[in-house]
Amino acid sequence: MVVDVEATSLVEASAFTLVTASKARLVFTVKEDIGFSASHLREHMLAGERMKVIYIKDAAGLRALRVEDAP
After folding, report:
1. Which domain holds residue 18?
2. Residue 24: half-sphere exposure toward Cβ, Cα within 13 Å
3. pLDDT tens-digit map of 26-48
4. N or C: fewer beta carbons within 10 Å in the chain?
5. Quick one: which H or E segment has residue 55?
């Protein structure tokens, strides 16, 4: 579940935080278009809707590459 969204505008997110079912807190940075706008991420946060994140782990941490609605 999304618990925080950092954005530079309504469209562009710079980072977001998820809490997993096992209560792990994951912070993802956003460097390019991930398929979700910052406002769409906030919609998921407010509604508690699940989503799927495709990401890589690099020297800076977790970087989101793509986000999709979860089934």
Report:
1. 2-69
2. 5
3. 999 999 999 999 999 999 999 99
4. C
5. strand 51-58
Distance CA 52, CA 26 (A): 13
Report helix, strand and coil shares of the chain as percent, to nearest 5: 15, 50, 35
Give DSSP secondary structure letters for the chain.
-EEEEEESSSS-EEEEEEE-TT--EEEEEE-S--SS-HHHHHHHHHHT--EEEEEEEETTEEEEEEEEE--
Q: Which tokens is 66 given?
A: 């793509």
Note the pTM of the prediction, 2 decimals.
0.93
- Other CB atoms within 10 Å distance of the CB of residue 71: 5
The rounded distance, in Å, linking the Cα atoms of 38 and 20 is: 20
Q: How many domains is the chain partitioned into structurally?
A: 1
Cα 60 to Cα 22: distance, rounded to the nearest angstrom = 23
